[in-house]
C-alpha cells in the first residue's frame, strides 16, 4: 500500500478540519483586528452543544429516529450556539472595548477563554460526552486500499463549501464589499457612512458560528471533554499565522500546508510529529513574517 | 486635599492590617481545633478538573465519599465493621489534583501543616507522586498513593518510611498484557502501538515491547505512534497503523483520548482487522455502548472494577456505589476504596485504645508489610520493603449485548502478582529483559 497516497488522504482530511477551525478566527481578526483567544471556547461550546443534543436525540427509543435528523441537529446546534454566544459576548462585552490596544484585546479574550472553560464545566460537568451515531452511521469507503470514514470525507466537502461561501460573500456581494472597505480603512469607511458597529457585530457572530460549527461537526468523531478548546486554539493560531492573519485564502493554504506536513510526519517520522507544525510555522515566518497571504500594513501616524 | 488622602491611606492600612491579623488568627485557630476534635482527618487528593477528572478523578472522589460515609456509619462488613477509623469519625478534606506537580507539593504541605490531616490518600498522576513522595517523607506525613503507576516511585524513594502505594506499578499492566496475548493469541506475529507522548505512554510501550520479546518472540512491533496528550483526532495515526496490517494494537491511552481512538479506529475498520488491547480499557466499560468492537481486550490495572473478585467487601462496595451513583464502580473507584481500607487496617492495628488516632509513624510501622482484605481480595504490602502492594492482574475481552445494552467480560485471564511483578531491587526493564527470573505463574 502506498504511503504517499495515505499521506495525501490523511493530510487533506486533517487540513479540512483545520480550515474549519481556523476560518472563524481569521475572519474576526481580518475585520476587527481582534486576536480572539476565546475562539477555542466557541469551538468547545459548539462541540458540547452538539454532543448533548445528539445524545438526547438518540436517547430513549433512538432506533426509531432517522439518523439524518442528527446531522440537522449538529448544524442547528452550531448556528444556535454561535448566534447566542456571539451576540452576548459582542454586545455585552467587546462593544465596550473597541478602539483599545490590540494587545489588550488578546488579554480580554484570553480571560474570556478561561471564564468560558470553567462555565462549560459548570454546565456540562467533567465527564466526557460521546455522540458517535452520526459518525458511525455514515460507514466507510475504501480508497485505494485505505479505509476512510465517510464522515471525514464529508467534512472535506463541508470545508470547501464554507471556504467557497466565505470567499463569495466577501468578494461578490454588496455586504462583502462594505466589509472589505472596513478591513481596508475603518475610519474612511465610517466617514463614508458605513455602519461599522453593525459590521462588527455581523462579523463576530459569523466568526463565533464558524467556530461552533467546527466544534459541532467534530463532536461525533471525538470524545467531548473539558480542555477541548484550549487544545484547538493553539493549532488554529498556527494555521492562521502561517496563512497570514485575516486572510481566508491564507487560512486554506495554511491548513493544507500544516495538514500535509503533519500527515507526512506521522507516516514517515512519527517522532517529529509534535514538532512539525511549529517547524512549518517558523519556516514560513522566517521567509514571510506576515504569513503566506498576509498584507503588510502601512503604519499610520 | 492631601490631608484627606493621607487619612484615607492610614485608615486603609489599619484596615488591611486588622484583616491580615484576623486572617492569621483564623488560620492558627481553625486547624488546631480540627486536629483536636477527636476525628480522623483524611486528605483525599484526586483530579476534580482537567482531562483525568471524568474517567478517573470523579469516580475516585465518589468512591472516597461513599466509603467514608459508610465507615462513619459503621456499615461495612468484617473486618472493617468498626466505626470510622478505630472508632474516630473520619473527616474528609477533598483537594483537586489538577495544576501540576509544583502546585500539588504546595497543596500537600498545606494539607499536612495547616489542615493538620492525619493521613493523605491520593494521586493519579505519576509526576505528582514523584514530587509529593520526598515531601511526605520530610514532613513525616502518612501518605497512601492509590493510583499513580510510575516504576520510579520506590527507585527514587529508596528507604520509604511514610509513603505507601496500594495500586500497582505500570510495568505490571504491560507485562500482564503480553502474558495475556501469549496465553490467548500465541500465533500473533505483528503488533502496533498507539500511546500518548509523555512518560506514561512511552514507559508503557517500552515495557510492553520488551515483555512481548519474551512472551511472543516471533511477534514484531511493526508500528509505534505517539500522538500528543488530548489530541482527540487520530486519523493519520490510524492510517499509519492500518497500512502496516498489525494483528494486535496495544494502547495505553486513557479517558477521552482512549474513547475517541476506539471510536475512530473502529469506524475506520482498523479494529475489524486487528484486536485492540487497552491497558486502561475497563474505565470506559459502561461508556463504549458497543462502540468498541466485541473482543477488544481491556485491562483494569489490577484486579479492580469489573475484574474485582466475588467477596463480601466487593459486594458491599459495588452495592453502595451503585446505589449512590447509579453505575457500577470502575477501577479507579475500587483502587480508592482499597487505599482507604488499607489505611484503616494499619491505623487500627497501630492504635492502643479505641477512639485513639495513632501518630503517623505508628500507622506507617503497622502498614509496612501488612496483609489486608480489600475489594480486590487480599492485598500483600510485600514489595519495596513492605511499602508497595503486590497483586495480580487480569485481562479480558469486552462483549456488548445490543439487546440488553449490557457489557460483559469474557475470556478473563488472571496472572498472580509474582508472575507479573519484578522482585524487590530489580528494575522492571532489567527483569523483563532477563526473561522474568523467579516469576511464579499459576
From TrEMBL, chain A:
<feature type="transmembrane region" description="Helical">
    <location>
        <begin position="71"/>
        <end position="90"/>
    </location>
</feature>
<feature type="transmembrane region" description="Helical">
    <location>
        <begin position="153"/>
        <end position="170"/>
    </location>
</feature>
<dbReference type="InterPro" id="IPR001851">
    <property type="entry name" value="ABC_transp_permease"/>
</dbReference>
<keyword id="KW-0472">Membrane</keyword>
<feature type="transmembrane region" description="Helical">
    <location>
        <begin position="102"/>
        <end position="124"/>
    </location>
</feature>
<dbReference type="GO" id="GO:0005886">
    <property type="term" value="C:plasma membrane"/>
</dbReference>
<comment type="similarity">
    <text>Belongs to the binding-protein-dependent transport system permease family. LivHM subfamily.</text>
</comment>
<dbReference type="Pfam" id="PF02653">
    <property type="entry name" value="BPD_transp_2"/>
</dbReference>
<keyword id="KW-0812">Transmembrane</keyword>
<dbReference type="GO" id="GO:0022857">
    <property type="term" value="F:transmembrane transporter activity"/>
</dbReference>
<keyword id="KW-0029">Amino-acid transport</keyword>
<dbReference type="InterPro" id="IPR052157">
    <property type="entry name" value="BCAA_transport_permease"/>
</dbReference>
<feature type="transmembrane region" description="Helical">
    <location>
        <begin position="275"/>
        <end position="298"/>
    </location>
</feature>
<keyword id="KW-1003">Cell membrane</keyword>
<feature type="transmembrane region" description="Helical">
    <location>
        <begin position="191"/>
        <end position="215"/>
    </location>
</feature>
<protein>
    <submittedName>
        <fullName>Branched-chain amino acid transport system permease protein</fullName>
    </submittedName>
</protein>
<dbReference type="GO" id="GO:0006865">
    <property type="term" value="P:amino acid transport"/>
</dbReference>
<keyword id="KW-0813">Transport</keyword>
<feature type="transmembrane region" description="Helical">
    <location>
        <begin position="12"/>
        <end position="35"/>
    </location>
</feature>
<keyword id="KW-1133">Transmembrane helix</keyword>
<feature type="transmembrane region" description="Helical">
    <location>
        <begin position="42"/>
        <end position="59"/>
    </location>
</feature>
From TrEMBL, chain B:
<keyword id="KW-0029">Amino-acid transport</keyword>
<comment type="similarity">
    <text>Belongs to the leucine-binding protein family.</text>
</comment>
<dbReference type="InterPro" id="IPR028081">
    <property type="entry name" value="Leu-bd"/>
</dbReference>
<dbReference type="InterPro" id="IPR051010">
    <property type="entry name" value="BCAA_transport"/>
</dbReference>
<keyword id="KW-0813">Transport</keyword>
<protein>
    <submittedName>
        <fullName>Branched-chain amino acid transport system substrate-binding protein</fullName>
    </submittedName>
</protein>
<keyword id="KW-0732">Signal</keyword>
<dbReference type="Pfam" id="PF13458">
    <property type="entry name" value="Peripla_BP_6"/>
</dbReference>
<feature type="domain" description="Leucine-binding protein">
    <location>
        <begin position="41"/>
        <end position="387"/>
    </location>
</feature>
<dbReference type="InterPro" id="IPR028082">
    <property type="entry name" value="Peripla_BP_I"/>
</dbReference>
<dbReference type="GO" id="GO:0006865">
    <property type="term" value="P:amino acid transport"/>
</dbReference>
<feature type="signal peptide">
    <location>
        <begin position="1"/>
        <end position="34"/>
    </location>
</feature>
